[in-house]
Amino acid sequence: MDFIPDESKESNGLIQLLKLLAFSLLSAVCFSLLAIFLVYIIYGTIEPKNLGSMRIMLVATSLGLFLIPSLILPISEKSSITTFYGFKKVKPNLLLLTILLIVVSMPFLEWTVAVNEKMVLPDALKWVEDWMRQKEEETKTVTLMLLDMKNISDLIVNLLMIAVIPAIAEELIFRGALQRSLTKISQNPHVAIWMTAFIFSAIHFQFFGFLPRFLMGAAFGYLYFWSGSLWYAMIAHFLNNAYAVCIAWYMQKNNIPLSEADQMHFTWYGYVLSFMLAILIFQVFKKQTNK
């Protein structure tokens, strides 16, 4: 696999995974304490429902739990970040295919969101479902507060906080570090891609949005695996998140309730066409990387 250079000089996959876990725990604790300190200094109180506090904590999580550990890991392996994660030069044809993939797959992902939201657990697990729905409502409340944009400054802040930073930090740790380590452990890139996608979706604790995020995680994983460059996964991740922020901005500017964003907008054949086009673009992307 060409994005795992000089494997013989590295620790084995399990050691890298344990390192990553240790770095993440330590960094997350440090950044959480730093964020709490900043919130207290700026606002004089620790109020979790304050918009400024939420922004600081969200950025601290992205940096402490995801970005910093993924930057420390290659250093611990005595490798450069660009070499370790395979930051190859972006090719225009692959960039265009990445953009097209995100655009054409959005209707299909919309359908998976609707399907996932209708999930019902057996009666014996009713208490689990109630807990999951409670967590979902709490997350939705926070999300709506973050997406309440009154001016262009709020839009720019949200694009940076929700699209740019997560695209970089989460792709570095999930596709770059975790998928890479699991590939070395399992010796099967497909197993590693789907395991990473599962963890990527589960760690967000949004159970009624698990399916679309799981599929997106797998898509990002294959973009990385086929191209050998993390740029395409980062770009795809950014486009997906930025689209959500821009849609929220558009809806608020046109006095459309954000709750209507979850409504399905296509007929059944629109979703089928979206799925088929996404698969087609995947195949073209793979063939272009093989060249």
Describe the structure.
It is built from ten helices and no strands. With 291 residues, it is mainly α. It has one domain. Helix 1 packs antiparallel against helix 2, helix 1 runs antiparallel to helix 6 and helix 4 runs antiparallel to helix 8. The radius of gyration is 20 Å and the shape is globular. The N terminus is likely disordered.
Annotation keywords:
disordered N terminus; mainly alpha; globular; 291 residues
Short description:
This protein is mainly alpha-helical and 291 residues long.
- SSE arrangement, N to C: HHHHHHHHHH
Please, what is the average pLDDT? 89
Total domain modules: 1
Major sheet: none
The total of helices stands at: 10
Cα-atom Rg, whole angstroms?
20 Å
Assign a percent range to the helix content: over 70%
Describe how the helices and strands are arranged.
Elements lengths: L12 H31 L7 H26 L4 H5 L6 H26 L8 H21 L5 H35 L2 H14 L7 H18 L3 H23 L14 H23 L1
